[in-house]
């Protein structure tokens, strides 16, 4: 019976460690944003609607390549190559954040304690949300407006 309890406790610990390791794969240090933007820009992105960390080696990016082509792709952080890609021709012109807007949103979030990011996104009205973790590993969501240096709202879990 004692052996069975030890085995169950060991398995539970291993599962918890695996879950934590997997969760950490979905975050990047805030200072890696410039690398992400450089690779996305080299691929052709001009406007960003969403940047989401898939794992330590790739990010998913939604945005615009120009005024006609909207793209969603998974981008390798090592090579800068597209791992998956979907393009759609759209009317109405590009919208989203420029590289400078994305950097500004990250600056606002870092000023509020963000250390690692999971996702950055903007809606058509210019509301920006940066999700990630602070230096102590707690979940953090920072909301701001596109092009503004002031934080609008913050949630910590």
From TrEMBL:
Signal peptide residue numbers: 1-23
The record's section on InterPro entries has: PepSY
Q: Which domain of life is it from?
A: Bacteria
The segment(s) forming the PepSY domain are: 7-85
Any Pfam family matching the protein: PepSY_2
Alphabetized UniProt keyword annotations? Signal
Q: Where is this region: Disordered?
A: 76-96, 125-157
Keyword Signal: yes or no? yes
Query: Does the keyword Signal belong to this entry?
Result: yes
Protein name, UniProt field:
PepSY domain-containing protein
């Amino acid at each position: 019976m004692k052996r069975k309890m030890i085995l169950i406790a060991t398995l539970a610990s291993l599962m918890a460690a695996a879950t934590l390791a997997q969760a950490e794969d979905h975050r990047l240090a805030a200072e890696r944003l410039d690398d992400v933007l450089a690779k996305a820009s080299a691929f052709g992105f001009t406007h960003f609607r969403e940047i989401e960390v898939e794992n330590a080696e790739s990010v998913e990016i939604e945005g615009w390549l120009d005024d006609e082509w909207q793209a969603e792709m998974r981008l390798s952080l090592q090579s800068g190559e597209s791992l998956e890609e979907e393009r759609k021709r759209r009317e109405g012109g590009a919208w989203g954040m420029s590289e400078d807007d994305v950097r500004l949103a990250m600056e606002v979030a870092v000023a509020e304690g963000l250390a690692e990011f999971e996702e950055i996104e903007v809606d058509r009205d210019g509301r920006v949300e940066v999700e990630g973790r602070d230096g102590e590993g707690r979940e953090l969501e920072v909301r701001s407006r596109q092009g503004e240096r002031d934080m609008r709202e913050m949630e910590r879990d």
